[in-house]
Amino acid sequence: xxxxxxxxxxxxxxxxxxxxxxxxxxxxxxxxxxxxxxxxxxxxxxxxxxxxxxxxxxxxxxxxxxxxxxxxxxxxxxxxxxxxxxxxxxxxxxxxxxxxxxxxxxxxxxxxxxxxxxxxxxxxxxxxxxxxxxxxxxxxxxxxxxxxxxxxxxxxxxxxxxxxxxxxxxxxxxxxxxxxxxxxxxxxxxxxxxxxx
Length: 197
Hints:
Blueprint: H1 4-8, H2 11-31, H3 33-37, H4 49-65, H5 71-99, H6 104-122, H7 131-150, H8 164-186
Helix pairs in contact: 2-4, 4-5, 5-6, 5-7, 5-8, 7-8
């Protein structure tokens, strides 16, 4: 598996990923447009979860291209890319189970969000997190869950409305798992490390 890391650190690959993630971030904010129009201003920053996760990763890639590390962005990226990537995959599968079908956009969301989750994890050896970066990220992530499931600012899937309590419970534990994975891959003493050159 380690054969992939020199490829990932290649500047041409990093530039390509930057372009893809910028495009995905823009599309993500566009996808949330109608919901953002109806969102109170105080909650706006917490609603577009996936595009904000990919925006964090855009900053990580920019830093890599500058041969730098921005650890807080890295912590936010790895946790939120995994969390919201997996969350969107599960929600779209649940839509399929409930409705018995899924439109092409749903399949695209499954593929693109799974890729989001994977890319966040694949770059873990290049991150340089400290515990405080993960603590700040944990606060952000769990606070976002409260905004979503106490104030009901979660992404709108009307066909899943009757499952919101169960989805909220799943999301909380997905947040904990995402934080734990970030700790395991980036902070524990024996975690695998590589340099961007």
